[in-house]
């Protein structure tokens, strides 16, 4: 059954029911950590909230669920900011009251000073929100219960909490940290333990006590794997003089550099969005452009699309800003300056000459070429190299600057796989797009980055992209293609060869944004939304395939992949399937088509981004010391679903075969689709019903 809403009746359901609730479908949380933060209320310090959220992200938390009740406007600004990034699930709570009773509210009163009755109610209300969080995050691997005045630190050698949890065989861990864990030994009363739990293995959840299902038990998290720090004032009535044994512990300082950078960047972004606070820093007052807006450098035909921080290139150990954009054939030769700013500069900027790193020379008869520049601040130049944004000047940085770009700080992607999509435009079929994204997730892709042409994409295609962007699985950015002064606006037309070459260049600018923005990931796959990279048995996920290839070829910067074409002009061979990609199982026998005289199908790429200097759709420039390799045959299949190139492929009569190996993913693929709000994603009622029936059939088969 595909039930989306629920209403309630005391005796029986009837047509007079007027109110109901959406039924929430929990999201997949494999290899993910969530935090249940109970209930936020009162005048929370927004500065400390930013620090808390950034530390949680730093140690690998994937989402924080927060219920809020009468929160200050300043704190709500912070919550909404992190909600917009997809890191926080923000939910309002209205406290239930018995008929005839006064409304219940909580203000800034601390637990230690609250009347007993109020405190008991607070505990009970907190349990309601915790149990909501437990069920809403029921598909996550691990869930932590904690408050905004608490930090959970992974101890060396661990860098993230996921490493801590996965390194221990456990069900439920108590986490507490003081010099003497049991304070009652010193007469101060016991500090209540905290918990991490596996949501599918409990039947009751509370702030400090959880009940495991049968055959599971509660265990302690190994003491040397973590520290749990609770930042609070002394309970003067229960901890006389707070003179318990203490120690100065500087272990947390190993996170300081990355933590400080992230906190400054978020504070800056909050300022740009009108966030009002007691300023600890000041900014230079430039307007920061939104994603999708290019910055033109003075009167030059140089247009900067993105500015990305690199620690390793072009000068290792320095503060490098990698610029990606367009230039005509003359302007890039004249040069320009980067004007780097940091809130510590209090209105001043550091001027750095931009250095050309790459200019696209592959095609003639184009008006704009892809360019990449670098702006580098050597370590000896300034004490603090954590710049937040960059403006540009043709001759020198000065008072005439009005706009700037945020400097993107790449996220950690260790042990992760991403897909880079060039640009989506036109009217993509929403059903196929959703199927493609769910298959990517099914085979172990962690994130998909894609740009969409901001003036040429359908509403229904954009609705799908925005939905997946809200889940955190897709990072979506608008793409505005700049036009040279006096020339008409440009898009993606293929009516004339010169425009086709220009479109090739324009579509590869986002690829190089992706390879630098995600350069801390282990692997990037360059592909389109009409292509599938399918692991072959015994491999079930792409990370398994790619890790095998990396061990086999440790010096490979890339792995080329030859493609099989699934020609959509050929009749479908599996019409019973609800999934478009599974209805077409006939593919070419040969992956290198020129052996049969049909013209070559260009190879696709998987790259290790830290070993790549520049990327094209079908080729790359590796870093010195690295080579180009091939993904081992037998480990995968790359399927390109497209119409026949009649003129090039001689009527598409090439040798073909019906290959059913992809069907081993079908049941999980259908199940993933059936969990989605398909009515919001452009699916027709008939297609939704077909998916529901097919999922039910697979479920019945599993049960029997």
Short note summarizing the structure:
This protein has 704 residues and is an alpha/beta fold.
Describe it.
It is a single chain. With 704 residues, the chain is α/β, with parallel strands linked by helices. Helix content is 23%, strand content 28%. Strand 33 (612-615) and strand 34 form a beta hairpin. The longest helix is centred in the N-terminal third of the chain and has 21 residues, at 116-136. It is a single-pass membrane protein. One of its GO terms (molecular function) is glycosyltransferase activity.
Features:
13 helices; about 700 residues; Spore Coat Polysaccharide Biosynthesis Protein SpsA, Chain A; seven-stranded mixed beta sheet; Glycosyltransferase family 92 protein; glycosyltransferase; transmembrane; alpha/beta; single chain; 3 domains
């Amino acid at each position: 059954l595909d039930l989306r809403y629920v209403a309630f009746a005391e005796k029986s359901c009837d047509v007079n029911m007027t109110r109901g609730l959406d039924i929430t479908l929990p999201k997949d949380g494999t290899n993910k950590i969530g935090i249940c933060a109970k209930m936020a209320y009162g005048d929370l310090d927004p500065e400390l909230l930013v620090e808390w959220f950034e530390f949680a992200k730093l140690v690998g938390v994937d989402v924080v669920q927060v219920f809020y009740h009468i929160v200050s406007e300043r704190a709500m600004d912070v919550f909404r900011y992190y909600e917009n990034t997809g890191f926080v699930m923000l939910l309002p709570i209205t406290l239930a009251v018995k008929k005839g009773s006064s409304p219940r509210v909580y203000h800034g009163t601390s637990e230690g000073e609250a009347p007993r009755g109020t405190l008991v109610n607070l505990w009970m209300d907190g349990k309601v929100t915790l149990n909501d969080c437990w069920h809403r995050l029921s598909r996550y691997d691990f869930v932590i219960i904690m408050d905004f005045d608490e930090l959970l630190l992974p101890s060396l050698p661990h860098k993230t909490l996921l490493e801590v949890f996965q390194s221990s065989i456990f069900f439920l861990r108590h986490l507490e940290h003081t010099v003497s864990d049991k304070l009652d030994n010193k007469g101060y009363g016991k500090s209540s333990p905290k918990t991490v739990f596996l949501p599918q293995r409990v039947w009751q959840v509370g702030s400090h006590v959880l009940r495991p299902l049968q055959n599971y038990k509660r265990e302690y998290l190994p003491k040397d794997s973590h520290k749990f720090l609770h930042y609070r004032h002394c309970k003067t009535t229960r901890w006389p003089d707070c003179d318990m044994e203490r120690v100065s512990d500087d272990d947390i300082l190993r996170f300081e550099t990355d933590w400080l950078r992230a906190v400054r960047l978020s504070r800056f972004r909050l300022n740009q969005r009108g966030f009002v606070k007691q300023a600890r820093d000041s900014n230079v007052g430039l307007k920061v452009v939104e994603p999708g807006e290019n910055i033109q450098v003075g009167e030059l035909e140089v247009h900067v699309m993105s500015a990305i921080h690199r620690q390793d290139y072009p000068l290792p150990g320095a503060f490098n800003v990698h610029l990606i954009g367009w230039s005509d054939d003359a302007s890039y030769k004249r040069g320009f300056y980067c004007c780097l700013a940091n809130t510590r500069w209090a209105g001043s900027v550091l001027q750095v000459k931009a250095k050309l790193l790459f200019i696209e020379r592959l095609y003639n008869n184009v008006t704009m070429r892809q360019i990449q520049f670098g702006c580098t601040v050597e370590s000896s130049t300034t004490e603090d190299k954590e710049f937040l944004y960059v403006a540009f000047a043709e001759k020198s940085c000065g008072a005439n600057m009005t706009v700037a770009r945020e400097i993107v700080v790449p996220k950690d992607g260790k042990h992760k796989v991403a897909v880079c999509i060039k640009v989506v435009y036109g009217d993509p079929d929403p059903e196929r797009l959703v199927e493609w994204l769910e298959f990517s997730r099914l085979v172990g892709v962690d994130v998909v980055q894609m740009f969409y042409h901001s003036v040429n994409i359908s509403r229904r295609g954009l609705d799908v992209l925005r939905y997946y962007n809200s889940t955190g699985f897709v990072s979506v950015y608008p793409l505005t293609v700049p036009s040279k002064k006096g020339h008409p606006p440009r898009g993606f037309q293929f009516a004339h060869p010169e425009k086709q070459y220009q479109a090739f260049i324009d579509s590869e600018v986002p690829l190089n944004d992706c390879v630098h923005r995600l350069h801390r990931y282990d692997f990037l796959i360059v592909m389109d939304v009409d292509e599938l990279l399918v692991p072959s048995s015994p491999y079930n996920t792409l990370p398994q395939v790619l890790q095998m290839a990396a061990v086999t070829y440790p010096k490979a910067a890339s792995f080329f992949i030859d493609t099989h074409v699934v020609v959509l002009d050929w009749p479908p061979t599996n019409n019973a399937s609800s999934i478009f990609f599974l209805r077409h199982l006939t593919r070419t026998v040969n992956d290198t088509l020129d052996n049969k005289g049909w013209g070559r199908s260009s190879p696709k790429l998987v790259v290790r981004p830290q070993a790549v200097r520049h990327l094209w759709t079908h080729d790359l420039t590796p870093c010195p010391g690295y080579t180009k390799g091939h993904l081992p045959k037998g480990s995968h299949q790359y399927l390109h679903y497209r119409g026949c190139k009649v003129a090039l492929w001689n009527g598409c009569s090439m040798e073909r075969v019906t290959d059913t190996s992809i069907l081993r993913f079908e049941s999980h693929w259908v199940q993933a689709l059936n969990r989605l709000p398909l009515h919001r994603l452009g699916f027709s009622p008939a297609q939704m019903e077909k998916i529901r029936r097919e999922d039910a059939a697979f479920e019945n088969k599993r049960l029997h």
